[in-house]
Amino acid sequence: VGGGQLGKMLLADARRMDIACHVLDPAADAPCALGAHQFTRGSLTDYDTVLAFGRTCHTVTIEIEHVNVDALAQLEAEGIPVFPQPAVLRVLQNKITQKAFYDAQGLATLPWQAYDSLADLQQAVAAGSQPLPFVWKSATGGYDGKGVAVVRTPDALEGLPEGACLAEQLADIQRELAVVVARTPEGQMACYPTIEMEFDPEANLVRFVFCPAQVHFRAHEKAYALATRTAEALGVVGLLAVELFYTTRGEVLINECAPRPHNSAHFTIEAAYTSQFEQHLRAILGLPLGSPALKQPAVMLNLTGEPGHSGPATYEGLARALAEPGTSLHLYGKAETRPHRKMGHITVVAPTRRQATRIARYAHEHVRVVDL
Amino acid sequence: VGGGQLGKMLLADARRMDIACHVLDPAADAPCALGAHQFTRGSLTDYDTVLAFGRTCHTVTIEIEHVNVDALAQLEAEGIPVFPQPAVLRVLQNKITQKAFYDAQGLATLPWQAYDSLADLQQAVAAGSQPLPFVWKSATGGYDGKGVAVVRTPDALEGLPEGACLAEQLADIQRELAVVVARTPEGQMACYPTIEMEFDPEANLVRFVFCPAQVHFRAHEKAYALATRTAEALGVVGLLAVELFYTTRGEVLINECAPRPHNSAHFTIEAAYTSQFEQHLRAILGLPLGSPALKQPAVMLNLTGEPGHSGPATYEGLARALAEPGTSLHLYGKAETRPHRKMGHITVVAPTRRQATRIARYAHEHVRVVDL
Fold first, then answer.
1. Which single residue of A43, A215, A235, B210 could bond A219 by disulfide (Cβ 3.0 to 4.6 Å)?
2. What are phi and psi of A69, to 5 degrees?
3. Is B188 within 8 Å of B142 (Cβ atoms)?
4. Which SS3 state, helix, strand or coil, does residue B201 take?
């Protein structure tokens, strides 16, 4: 369910192993429109569409959380394996239920407060019961830096979307980390090495991903422990990407989770013994998990649409990036670029993280996604 | 031109980089029927079919040598880039012109003698002018162990196909090696590390491929020198797979060449910074070559149809193989198995060649391609 770039990369591993895939996506030119055994155009959020689609499948999975979970639950009730399970999606689809779950399970996360509407939050700020500064997060619909805002003054709330939201304490963050864990129906788990993310300060988008993360080994231990405890608490089958804050005080706290392949682990295609996409397929299809260890360190650079450019996409500077050793190019096949839209990525694998970083930063200087 | 497993793996890298491919193959269920931007059913050896197909393309390449070269030459004359060039294919398509080329260029190869027909060869043996033993090779049509036979007695010639052939001196072979080299239109070259092949003694098929090869560094040097000199002499653009004999006397001699991605370098998908398929695309599309170095050592195991089994294919023991660390499965998507038919392969990547070898041999013990 979903035919974007995550689906496209999943299809690549499925095709390698000759696993037939049927994909549902509303866009005729979705990245998955090519390469699926069957491609159906349709809404991901419409009950009947998702139900009818799922009934054609042996096993159902998702590449995006914003789907009709009631339809998935019905498919599960009909005996069709659905991974991640609808119950897991219900918890994670909404940031309020997600945070409440962490608290209930004793999984370390930043203090927060839920509000039914933006107006309620504004009132609490005015009344002084909600201290400033904080991070506003929309309960639903957030992705790629949308649905999140740092609020330092009451004015900053103006213009934010209405609707249920939460206010999270602003942490003193040293690094943003992620651990991607795979879990089988029998509860076997495998964790990729801790990932470090570097954000584009303007777009609030991940610019670079580094693996392994350069943090104290105790931070690695805490990150693994938190990720595996979360996967167990959810009982998720398939991948769980756990985004983490590593604070200046040395705490490791859950930011948020996604029960699917994740941008932070795209580098595993080239750098790990088993890519996250193959690992997801292995987990949901009852195959043994593969080794999540690295062949070599890696850095990934997201290629996003240049601000100020919208329209048919073209790529500048690719040949310069590809001339550097260890660079692999992924273009998602999206016809149109828009500011900050994820259009592709470059993975750099090298014997040392330092060398991979140098090349990835060089590529970032030279590659631009612009309109024709 | 050609839609088999080599094409399927080429499509995977092309799709990753969003390069659109149009594939020609006679079989409706060819491995490339899925995943190509366009798939045309048609004969690879028919002049008009190949010409019409090529005229729809920006650049034309092949994944099999047995194609209509006259049509490719016409496309080249019309200004469409064709790589490998038709002139290269003409030399290599026929084993007699291929061996004559090596001799003319001073490229070390085993002594040989051409015959216009099997009858001529039989006559020469009877007359004593062709000493026994020797290796019979059909001038055309040989692949996957077909078109080659060791002849130790005159009787062994009985039942061999008619037609032009050559008799090659039987060498005292220590190892069979291969070097795959990529060459750009500007003459830039990049060699993968020397590959070592282990054959199934019964089927005369490659069973295992090891990289790096465990041979004296002088053998590596000779192998690289011979491969790059051959690529230069041919002026080939794209990949050239050079199969080599390493004799007990320490000589390195050309066995034969193929101007395309090659079974011996499938392991580069997982083990090298740049896969042979991406390297071929880079070379023929005017992109800079990628690094051919290894991330880690690798061993590849060909999965071929079990003798005595023909019909709809199924695979036994895959889960046991996949439970071992560093194993990657490739199934080519061929519906029917036949004895010794190439159905897929498993690549094992590990920190040491010894470890990869152990796992590959374990996989060979457990995986079987049989009929349903």
1. A215
2. -75, -30
3. no
4. coil
Q: Which of residues 273-332 of B touch A (CB under 8 A)?
A: 273-274, 278, 282, 287-288, 290-291, 293, 295-296, 318-319, 322-323, 325-332
How far is Cα A159 from Cα A137, in angstroms, rounded to an integer? 14
* Chain B CB within 8 Å of residue A188 CB: no
Q: Which residue of B has its CA nearest to A35?
A: B35
Distance, CA of A190 to CA of A238 (rounded, Å): 10
d(CA A145, CA B229): 53
Complex ipTM: 0.95
CA atoms within a 13 Å half-sphere pointing along the CA-CB vector of A235 = 7
Closest Cβ–Cβ partner in B288, B296, B318 for A295: B296
Positive or negative, the CA dihedral B39, B40, B44, B49 is negative
pTM of the model: 0.96
Rounded average pLDDT per 10-residue block, chain A, 372 residues: 98 98 97 96 98 98 96 98 98 96 98 96 95 94 77 92 94 95 98 97 90 95 98 98 96 97 98 98 98 98 96 97 98 95 97 98 98 92
What is the DSSP pairing of strand A38-41 with strand A22-25?
Answer: parallel
pLDDT per residue as tens digits for the range B178-228: 999 999 999 999 999 999 999 998 878 999 999 999 999 999 999 999 999
Contact assessment for residue A214 and residue A297, using Cβ atoms and an 8 Å cutoff: no
